[in-house]
């Protein structure tokens, strides 16, 4: 039995902590401005965007805490440390986003037919400031999207920017025409922006928690590459999954000819397997069990 390893346990989110912290500060500043602006102006769209920003602030805070925990060293029973916490934070974030969208829709429906008075000047000023802050946050995270937590924060900021544009347009319509239902329409648009993002984040996070194979790892191609290694005659119990964003792992039982094992070539086969998987599929951590051809009689009756 043997194992070939490629050790690189740094996560994709670890290098983004400073940027996430900066985005969190921007988000909290915009949130405070939008809450005050919504109370002063009576705008549901601004209040909806404030609720969205509150959820985003919590989500970014969760992501920041998760990626900080993920950097803690593995010890005891947590052999991969706290790296999976990032994915749990992404799930919580997705659920929060969906909840905000539902609340906004309910309030928007309640206002249909009885729209309140809106102060468009306040709406325009606060929405413009929010848009600028969102664009600054997007610029900070644009090249750091390898992590699900960071990707979730980036999606939130993108949705916030689009939401700010919708609020700006609603404020302009109210200012130019006096048609206050435009504010309710903008609130519904904000909710419509949130739901698809929540679904995408939840789907990707659940794929990791259910240990689905990474989307960019084709197990049929992996099997074919393994079988091309000199001395390998079979592969079974092939599994690939993701610990956290940027950390795919793979394990397999690899059958090697008796001649190769007798000649002491097991180490060469392991090196070739690790190099093959790392170079072609960018799998950070590979574990292989090397077996002789005669070992098949001792295996469990079911293999994949």
TrEMBL record:
Its main location: membrane. Residues 214-292 form the Cation efflux protein cytoplasmic domain. GO terms for molecular function: zinc ion transmembrane transporter activity. Keywords: Ion transport, Membrane, Transmembrane, Transmembrane helix, Transport. Residues 22-210 form the Cation efflux protein transmembrane domain. It is a multi-pass membrane protein. The chain crosses the membrane at residues 20-40, 46-67, 87-109, 121-141, 161-179. GO terms for cellular component: plasma membrane. The keyword Transmembrane applies. It is found in: Membrane. Belongs to the cation diffusion facilitator (CDF) transporter (TC 2.A.4) family. SLC30A subfamily. This is Cobalt-zinc-cadmium efflux system protein. It comes from Geodermatophilus saharensis.
